[in-house]
Design a protein that fits this description.
- The chain starts with a helix and ends with a helix.
- With 223 residues, it is mostly helical.
- The protein is elongated, with a radius of gyration of 27 Å.
- Helices cover 90% and strands 0% of the residues.
């Protein structure tokens, strides 16, 4: 009878230990999956957020700078469109070259690791290939997001003839878009929302104010 009770007690202990092991393994797998998703997301997220903010701020600053010396709506629109095309091409090429350089470095590092450790598992090699950066994906995301950001001040200024109202609408639309992009980047990247949005908003205001002030000063000096 005592042996039977002892055997039953041992079986219960083994069952509890097995359940705990399964729960710990499941928790570790979920954490690893979350880490993998965020690391894989970070590449295109960085390119997309930076591209949208650059397109928004640079195009708006260009339009505000031209608007400081020219009240013609056509001049502002042409300047903004030129900034959109040039900026999108520049962002795509720059991001492609940058990420491709990173890819070359990581491939060289993988090659050196293989030479030092010939018994690497196939699963590890597949994981490394999936985690490698994609230059075309980063370039496309950066260029497209730049264009989306640049369209905000262009659309805001396209249908308003009155000079002062046009400037005010551009500033308001750009400010709202900066807050939206800042919040989106913070939510997707699990960063503080208010601090990220305010930082981007203040940076955009400074860029537009400095551009407007300098071009106004140069234009009024007759240079």
């Amino acid at each position: 009878m005592e042996k039977t009770n002892e055997t039953s007690f041992n079986n219960q202990k083994l069952t509890i230990l097995a359940v705990n092991d399964v729960e710990q393994q499941t928790s570790m797998e979920l954490e690893a999956q979350d880490d993998f998703n965020y690391s894989k997301r970070s590449q295109w997220l960085r390119a997309a957020v930076l591209g949208a903010n650059d397109g928004l701020i640079s195009t708006a600053s260009l339009m505000m700078g031209v608007g400081a010396v020219k009240q013609d709506i056509k001049a502002m629109i042409l300047t903004g469109f030129a900034g959109l095309v040039a900026g999108a091409c520049s962002m795509a090429i720059g991001e492609f070259v940058s990420v491709y350089s990173q890819l070359d470095i990581e491939l060289a590092q993988i090659k050196r690791d293989k030479q030092r450790c010939e018994n690497r598992k196939i699963e590890e090699e597949k994981g490394e290939k999936e985690a490698l950066p994609n230059p075309l994906q980063a370039a496309a995301a950066s260029s497209l997001s730049f264009s989306v950001g640049a369209m905000v001040p262009l659309l805001a200024a396209s249908f308003i003839r009155e000079y002062k109202v046009r400037l005010g609408v551009v500033i308001g639309a750009v400010s709202l878009a900066l807050l939206v992009f800042g919040c989106m980047g913070a939510v997707l990247g699990k960063a503080p929302i208010v601090r990220s949005a305010v930082r981007i908003l203040v940076g955009g205001w400074l860029a537009m104010a400095i551009t407007f002030g300098l071009i106004k000063l140069i234009g009024s000096s007759g240079l």
